[in-house]
Design goal:
heterodimer, A: 379 residues, mainly alpha, three-stranded antiparallel sheet, B: 373 residues, Arc Repressor Mutant, subunit A, 3 strands
Chain lengths: 379, 373
Amino acid sequence: ETHLKIHYILPREEQVLEAIDTRDGVFCAELLSFKHPHVANPRLQLSSPEDKCQQVLEPPYDEMVAAHLRCTYAVANHDFVEAALPVMFAVTLDLRVFANNAEQQLQKKGKGKVGDMLEKAAEQLMSCFRVCASDNRAGIDDSKKWGMLFLINQLFKIYFKINKLHLCKPLIRAIDSSNLKDDYSMAQRVTYKYYVGRKAMFDSNFKLAEEYLSFSFQHSHRSCQRNKRLILIYLLPVKMLLGHMPTTQLLKKYDLMQFTDVTKAVSEGNLLLLNEALAKHETFFIRCGIFLILEKLKIITYRNLFKKVYLLLKTHQLPLDAFLVALKMMQVEEVDIDEVQCILANLIYMGHIKGYISHQHQKLVVSKQNPFPPLSSVS
Amino acid sequence: MNRSAASRPRPHSRKAGGRRREEHCKTEEKADDVAPRGTCTTMCPISEVRQREAQNRLHHFEVLAGTERNRLPRADVCRAVKEYSRPAAGKDTTRASELRPPDVLLKTVCYLVDDVAACPSRQPWTEVYSFVFDRLRSVRQDMVIQRVSGPECASVLERTVRFLLYASYRLCGQPLRLYDPHINDTHLQESLSWLLECYSEGQHQHQDEFQALSLLYNLGSPRALQHALELPHKVRHSSPVQLALALNRAYMERNPVRLLRLAQRLDFLQACALHRHLLSCRRDLLLLYSHGHSSRNCRFPIQKLADILSLECSLAAQLCQTHGIHVNGDYVVFSKGSFTESPSEELQCAHMHKLVDDKQQDLSLSNIIHGIA
């Protein structure tokens, strides 16, 4: 029976898709309007239409249509209270989309400061948020609190776009202290964890970032390749910093071959290859905003390279010169013995090496037991 | 989420009234387009000169020589400069006769630099700074009201940024009532962001220089770094920007030895931009070495330490002692247990300015601020 529903749904969503593609604004607006007769169609009444919409439509239209369909469902069930939230969803979503468009128009004309429109939209959304968060009157089923996560996700999108991540903090606190946090729809929770994971990355809180992004990745809808790939772009660097390299198989599956050389370089301690790999796919990494995080992999690469030196020399008193030679072989520019000491000091400070440097003897003296602890146990 | 927004078509709402709304928007836009245009040809509008003269509110840099001791000192019209005034209800800031057009603004800035800031007879410099700071703020205010943009705007902002950067170094360590580094920083960041926005369109002669200064002043800032990574190829690969990026990379990799080594290659103004980070970089080096060299038999030569810290021996020793690191004649003993984060009051950044000082040599302040190296 679900099949039948989907089959009937499909033509309508494709109608929306066609309307968008041919820029037929009038028709599109009709399809999303409550005045159009389609609203009465029982086949369009799905309580959780997000997944289907994601498969057929691109963002942000997938969300808009899903919100609209939720609404039709609620209204058909004469549940105007329930319907109020989806209406708010649809309206706030429109707001964000239009703010985005306004931004781009302004940018083309060279007017206005970047982010102005989106910030204004965010202010509006925050008022909606406050209304929802403070809704203590209705019973739990009717509570406006159900709108909170949706709004928060919208606000996250804006804050990430205008690069004001610190504004996410109060929102995260609100959800953390809410008793509804595990009861929102999976789609909303996946989106939420994606953004919180990215924020944790930005704050260099890699263990937490791994937890959130992994959740997001695992619970993302199976058929939504695009979303899973997007999450992976951020999950991969985090996992690599924690010492877990992805398989070529995984990279191939999600069309992320840009990471293959990076992965190889880091695990081999090959600084030369790492620098080359970062340069080669620079544009991609910069656009995704992960270039700076990937540069942090240099420290892991130093660690792996130096571990090789240790394994090669089979002694616990390693001449500093050996590390200098290794770095020079990797064509690291203008490095001298003082810098080698600093790199080693940092690795010791971070817990990647157990030992100490003896300046008098120009040696690194490492612990006889496990001098290079596994990466996952550090940081 | 990242989407290739450029390729998505957007639905236009053409509901009833839509067209009317569009046309209304167009006329509104036109009205917004007409920014006030100033006609004042002097550094200070005559009306303000007369008013401040009558109210005895002239700054002594603006007073006619010989009239200082009068009950009401007379204004020297060639030296009076429009002061900054807080916008207030009922105050009309858009009167054309009181606004200075871009060419007058640039002349004003040049006067402030050459005849006030760089004038050696004007002492103390904290007073010079206060005056110039305020008058530059008024210049920016005139630019905002008239919506000046492009190269004219950049010329003014470039000199402003250079002045504020120099001040952040020169007045470092002065008492708070004479110089507030936080206020200087706020205005510096504002001017810098505005300048970088100007650069986003068209070609600009000094763009490389200022992108680099921004990276140095904002060492380690992910925002500044991401912005730099997205710069056009030519700018990004210019030598000042590459050097600034290299310093940032050393900072991100937590290699203060490398950072301080690269800092030796900076020119005077770049060193001014970086200078507020130097103390914490040196501290970080001591922290890392406290852990990395921690052993009972540790003997690290003070001279070597001074070299990598870019400090004189005595200052290096003082810095160590401040952080709980034991100094034993010609050596220090690093120990991870004894390092303390909180520095004592006595040792200030200002005592360790030699790295920057040495770079000034015989450069005149005027040349530094106008960008003639």
